[in-house]
Specification:
binds flavin mononucleotide; globular; NADH Oxidase
Length: about 230
């Protein structure tokens, strides 16, 4: 088998291995080294304009995780009578989306990000400010807190996907989680984690660990010709 085909097999095996894991083995913990690789996959992920419009909040304390149980119906095991992903995951993350406070064109935050993180020269900063203003106002029509936050969350989902794929390649299970009450999650983040809702809103949660049992269902997907059109 050539190198290319063995890499292809590794990739497809990882995608077949990954499933939305509902219950993890609570006794098994992901090593720090492996979890750092998952975090690196997020950190190195692409984002529109390179603005990295998301944060990752790791919720490891069992007490802190319990704060979400009542309204995180997609992670509390209510559907299968277990402690759910919240109660069994080795690692539990909440991806936060930046709001318009930082992501509106010409914001102070973006000036600093372009200069200090991206190390762009002044003339390029000026050019990107103009292009990003046009992008927000007319190209994509993304204006106001909700729309800008949703755009940030779209970038967060790229990191989410990469984290889950890298986990699967390491034999680590995961579950993406949108099953939560947005307003109550935001209020809990403010009250118990000091997250200012004017600056950050929850985008998606994701749990990692090792499956407690085999997936109950075989993977189902549409056929390729139902998904892809070639012209
Ligand atoms: C953005 C997103 C949010 C999801 N939210 C939940 C959730 O709250 N709880 C859950 O158990 N599964 C959740 N899922 C898992 C999906 O139901 C699952 O990916 C889908 O049914 C396909 O199954 P598979 O991932 O096992 O192949 C979510 C998936 C995605 C991509």
């Amino acid at each position: 088998m050539s190198d290319i085909s063995s890499a292809q097999k590794q990739i497809i095996d990882a995608f077949n291995f990954r499933h939305a894991c509902k219950v993890f083995d609570p006794e098994r913990r992901i090593s720090d080294g492996q979890f750092n690789t998952i975090l690196e996959a997020a950190r190195l992920s692409p984002s529109s304009f390179g603005f990295e419009s998301w944060q990752i909040l790791m919720v490891q304390s069992p007490e802190k995780r319990e704060l979400f149980r009542d309204f995180a119906w997609g992670a509390n095991g209510a559907t299968n009578g277990t402690a759910g992903q919240l109660g069994t995951a080795s690692h539990f993350a909440i991806l936060l989306a930046h709001t318009d406070a930082t992501m509106k064109h010409h914001s102070e935050y973006l000036q600093q990000h372009m200069r200090e993180v991206k190390q762009l020269p002044e003339e390029v900063v000026g050019f990107i400010n103009q292009a990003y203003e046009k992008f927000q106002k007319s190209d994509f029509g993304i204006e106001g807190k909700r729309q800008i936050t949703d755009w940030s969350a779209r970038q967060a989902y790229i990191a989410l996907g990469n984290m889950m794929t890298v986990a699967a390649m390491l034999g680590i299970d995961s579950c993406p989680i949108e099953g939560f009450d947005m307003a109550r999650t935001s209020a809990t983040l403010e009250q118990h984690f000091g997250i200012d809702p004017e600056s950050y809103q929850p985008a998606v949660m994701v749990a990692f660990g090792y499956r407690a049992g085999e997936p109950p269902f075989a993977k189902t997907r549409r056929d390729m010709d139902q998904i892809v059109s070639w012209y």
